[in-house]
Amino acid sequence: MCPISNANNCNLNVGFRLTSKNRYSISKPYPLVGGRLFRDFNELINNIEDLDVLIYSFMTMHRDSVLEEINKIIQIKREKRLKRPILIAGGPHPSGNPKDAIKNVTVVTTDTWVSMGQEDQKEQKNRPKRGSKTQNCLL
Question: pLDDT > 70: what percent of the chain?
Fold first, then answer.
């Protein structure tokens, strides 16, 4: 596995869940972060204890199958009393519905909430909503 460094100079082992459905969205962060691509879910499970971070990117139409996998990972983490990997969700579904995605993962990353042609609404749309906490675009 390829480690990345965080602000404290700790190496993190990062895994990406790669499927035929998300290969284009994974192709953006993977070259920047590095890590290991898991095409097979069983291989991912066999290596779960070696990962610090596990990243999923998915669209709404794949939500149910992704959440099924994530719930299995959560169950294994509980059974083995693992604190890691940290589960990160990104992509079209988490960007469009972060409240749904955050129920099952540690961190949700979102894309811009301003569509092309709506640039004049950027300030209003990016303003934190009442009762929410924003940390580097995380709600």
Answer: 72
Q: Count helices and strands (H / E) in the chain.
A: 7, 6
Count of domains observed in the chain: 1
Report field, pTM of the whole predicted structure over 0.90? no
In a domain, 137, yes or no: no
Does residue 107 belong to any structural domain of this protein?
yes
Q: What is the CATH number of the domain that holds 96?
A: 3.40.50.2300
Q: How far apart are the C-alpha atoms of 52 and 85, rounded to whole Å?
A: 4
Residue 121 lies in a domain: no
Tokens of 20: 């035929």
Cβ pair 66, 56 in contact under 8 A? yes
Cβ atoms of residues 35 and 105 within 8 Å: no
pLDDT of residue 106: 83
Q: Indicate the helix (H) or strand (E) that contains 94.
A: helix 92-96
* Residue 136, domain member (yes or no): no
Angle at 73 between CA 133 and CA 2, to 5 degrees: 85
Which domain does 37 fall in, by range?
A: 3-112
Give tens-digit pLDDT for 104-132. 888 877 665 556 666 676 666 566 555 54
